[in-house]
Amino acid sequence: MAKIKKIGVFTSGSDSPGMNAAIRAVVRTAVLYDLEVVGIRRGYEGMIQGDFTPMNRKSVSNIIQRGGTILKAGRSEEFKTPAGRKKAFEQLKSQNIDGLVALGGNGTFIGAKDLGREYDMPIIGVPCTIDNDLLGTDFTVGYDTAINTAIEAIDKIRDTAESHDRLFIVEVMGSDSGLIALRVGIAIGAEAMMIPGTRSDMPALFARLEMGRKDKASKIVVVAEGEEPGEAFEIGKIIKEKYPNYDTRVSVLGHIQRGGKPTCMDRVLASRLGVAAVEVLRNGHRNEMVGLIHNDIIGTSFERSIKHNIDLNTDLLKVVEMLSL
Ligand code: F6P
After folding, report:
1. How far is CA 101 from CA 28, 121, 133, 200, 284, in A?
2. How many other CB atoms sit within 10 Å of the CB of residue 243?
């Protein structure tokens, strides 16, 4: 097994709060182990174009508290093709990069899996997405910040909903997983939830709303985003038709959930996983994601981390149902 001397780090797909803390951890750990580090800007697109920048301890100063990613993120259609991955590999080799740390979610790890299968390039992933939808980690970097941002926003909506005796339909992000909606729904005391599996079940939603206390001034229905953002407007229309007496409003929280200062939980998670990623890469691991399960750092192959349907925790679902009436 050849010793790794120079690594590349990049952020890809959607950004998530805490990515900067993870970049910092990767760079500083690499420096501690005498590895050279190169930042690859704009994810796989930048890898194809050779958009590389040398990094050192100083290049990651004062970023642990910042949202977004200093390396920039994004998706690449070209990298999905074998020709795109060939170009990317050639760029890496021209810089003598012999290992990669990939920060991102499902799309990032699908790309990493393909590159690692086709070329001799060890890659370790750090789960960074607000959606929390990867197998092999209890939480992803960015999830905690996103749910706290959503809670803060919905608490404000509750104030105005209560003043006007209104019913609000609030759509949160989370891709098709519903994991943001589930926790946020509990934390804001939602009267009803629409999450994958139940989202199109309007009769169940009506039953839930009718079961609720009649003396309660405001009601909030938390809706997980579907295929397309904005489905909450459709749901709002249907509710208005069924209950013309409710004063109904719709609010789609959108990308506000992706920004902002990472919470303590996210900074610590990003730092731990960033350190672990470099350590396992040095120890000869490849093509796996490092995650935290029951507070232990565990490696999970890219293949396994991305190909799954994460079941919604039925205990959490039960809590919503028990407490929302
Ligand atoms: O994966 C993170 C996420 O914010 C999802 O929750 C959402 O569906 C998607 O990205 C939005 O992507 P974009 O920023 O391209 O609109």
Report:
1. 13, 11, 19, 39, 13
2. 14
- Contact yes or no for 310/179 (Cβ under 8 A): yes
Same domain assignment for residues 45 and 71: yes
Residue 131 near ligand 1, beta carbon < 6 Å: yes
Instruction: Report whether 105 belongs to an annotated binding site.
Output: yes
Interatomic CA distance for residues 217 and 236, integer angstroms: 18
- How many structural domains is the chain composed of? 2
- Report residue 118 as tokens: 């086709």
Indicate if 131 belongs to the active site: yes
Q: Is 130 in the pocket of ligand 1 (CB under 6 A)?
A: yes
**Residues 94-108: tens digit of each pLDDT:** 999 999 999 999 999
DSSP 41-66: TTHHHHHHHT-EEEE-GGGGTT-TT-
pLDDT tens column, 272-323: 999 999 999 999 999 999 999 999 999 999 999 996 667 778 888 888 888 8
Calpha distance 194→235 (Å, rounded): 10
**Active site residue: 131, 133, 144, 266, which one?**
131
Distance CA 321, CA 298 (A): 33
The domain containing residue 55 runs over which residues?
6-142+262-306
* Structural tokens at position 315: 């205990």
Say yes or no: 133 and 13 in one domain: yes
Task: Decide: pTM greater than 0.90.
Answer: yes
